From TrEMBL:
Family matches, as InterPro entries: Iah1-like, SGNH_hydro, SGNH_hydro_sf
Pfam families on file: Lipase_GDSL_2 (PF13472)
Annotated SGNH hydrolase-type esterase domain residues: 57-222
Top-level lineage group: Bacteria
Name of the protein in question: SGNH hydrolase-type esterase domain-containing protein
Species annotation: Parapedobacter defluvii
Amino acid sequence: MLKTKLFLLASGIIGTLLAGTCLDLPAQRLGSHASLELKQNERILFLGSSLFENELEKGYLEFAISSRWPDKDLTFRNLGWVGDNVFAEARSTFTTPPSPYQQLFQQIRSTTPNHVLVAYGGIESQKGEEGLGEFVKGLEIIIDSIDALGAQTILLSTIPVKLAGNPENTATQNKNLKLYADAISTVASKRKKRYVDLYTPIAKNTDDIFLDNGIHLNDKGYYYLAQVLEESFGWPPRESKVTINASKSTASGPAKIISDKEGKIAFSVEEPILPFPVTDSGKPAAEVSVSVQVNGLKDGFYTLTENGRQLVTASAADWANGIVLDHGISQEQATQICGYIVKKNELFFQQYRPMNRTYILGFRAYEQGRHQQGLKDLDFIIAWLEGQIKLHRQPVVKRYELSPLKE
């Protein structure tokens, strides 16, 4: 540990390492930062501890960002490592060098990022106020390294826990987690970096968003976290609200009337961005979905079809109130993309953190080093999956028809 800390504070060594490289949401304050805008071919890196590694099997955070820019070719890599801290101690291996911290920088450099979302502090907060100074030093050195690569750092706060053993310990843990969240905010302000407050909205959320251990987010929690991230980046809600006036045969939102004959209204819809995928954890919120509102219908029940497939049947009163579509082509696209994201991230995980690492890449590579080529060959499958993500993230035009239910 002492050697690691001395190494962290040796700016000359750091310079050598880097040389030649390059649900209702509460309002999130943007501070002095405008809304985040991503550019063609930019690369986004998730760096941190369990918050990001546990997200590998969800894909919601990456989906939230990539689907927001369907016309941009963006690349994502996830270097989340459960139990990791700003000293990279969880990344240690039997092969030294590289040291854990050297390995962290090698991993960061290998992804050639343009934006790095940094989420540390959860592990370090267990030392309380006593460990705050060292945490800040380690965090600032990571920021220095990212700056040296010419990339932008986005600092994410810690998140609270729901239960940490008993109520007394839970209160202590959350007090420390809030202390570290505030410290991260201070560092962000000092270094003029974008800061995302996750602690406040997670603490205020009363839904069941934690796993049984009370510490890590569950599927619903990451679904909510993705929405928090979108709001913090200054992006408007992704809701696509279609409003049809049956009596006037007019449409608003991303819809156009095709025909209105014999009580049947046909219209087309092309959302600017895809809705969030529908999950087993519950129906989607209107803020992240497609909703259809139809006014001026005569009393009775009406069926909505999408490209000839029946979606939903509801009363005229329900249509007037608006109905959130929880299945359909766009929802299937979103679910499919999340599947590609999860598989792609799984392969990248196997590539940069292979089992038997010591035998394949480390000091015993003379035994199984032949498998290094197999790890490199995963690039072909990863590239194919990324191609599928890019191919399917653009919403398509759909034809809808609303017709009275036949008795």
